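Structure tokens
________________
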Amino acid sequence: MFSRPGVKGFVVAGFFGRMPMSMLGIGVVLLIEALTDSYAMAGAVAATVNVAFAVAGPLTGRLVDRFGQARVAVPMVLTHGAALTAMMLCGGLKAPAWTLFATGVVVGGSALSLGSLVRARWSYLLGGSSELHVAFSFESIVDEMIFVAGPALVTALATMVSPYAGLIVAMVSTVIGTIAFAMQRGTEPPVTENGGRSGSPITIPGVALLSCVFLAMGSVFGSFDLITVAFAEEHGSMVASGLLLSVIACGSLISGLWYGARKWKASLRSRFVRALGLFALGVSPFTLIDDLRVMVPFMFLAGLAISPTVITSYTLIEQLVPARLLTEGMAWLSTSIGFGVALGSWAAGRLTDMYGASNAYVFPLGCALLAVAVGVGGSAWLRTPVPQQQS
């Protein structure tokens, strides 16, 4: 895959450009909690950012499909950087609380789902080839590398340097990386003239089903971030929260390596359902754990099902959605996770303040079980219209 011209450039730029996807949410939580001493407020601001991202995601994907990646990505990332700077200034100057929410709307609305753009480039270069499964597996591994390093980095910066330091690093990384990605024009998918386009990918039943599943999964991810920060603080080690979240990502990274290297005979639909079941099983023990050391191995086990679920979902999208709508189709998964993360952050903040972190882990467990119920119940919609490639 990497012998193709231009691939290394967009992969490296895409890595740095989307590094903040694992840093922004927890960075906002740590900053707002430090300023207000309230996890409920921190969760509400983080939820605002994620709702704005979720609403804007499909619209951004449609703009990219219509005008091209570079023409959309550059102005959006510059707006995102300016809005994040404004949020930090509002916090530092003790501006009214509404300013945090107002700037949060712009921060989330201008955040780019760069992972969708990267996968769209792979699909353009490798569409119809068995290498595409390997490419999507590789991208999931890259995502997990980001989720291994990001939470630990932003937590260390926010707790050991300054509450603002993590968000500053995230902002610089996304602005420089996204602009560098946009400059890689040789691998950019061409814009397809489709004046007679018919609707949105969300009207495809399989895409709608996957979006609902990702909404529930996003609620797990959003609540886990905040609850784990609170859990670590309750046990006297705030910095351990980043390490715990990194352990989950380590599990997902390893399973992504294993999953991408295998030749699969089972259908995509079957693999998707099995991965969802393992995902719910992995989340189950956390309500019973009250020790940081015991939490570590269970965090690792919980992460093992994440990559296979995500890889299979993007592969299903690639086969269910017409090429001219692919970026928007993939963006619906990102936007669903965004809505879920927003809901999870808000609910987790309330539950943690009311009942404590250990009891609040009941919420992500319920969301994981809901994801399984929806995915299994509607799996018939995930039959792919063309024979899938084996790798």
About this structure: Residues 386-391 have pLDDT under 50 and may be disordered. Residues 8-187+201-382 form a domain with the Growth Hormone; Chain: A; fold (CATH 1.20.1250.20). The chain has one domain: 8-187+201-382. The radius of gyration is 20 Å.
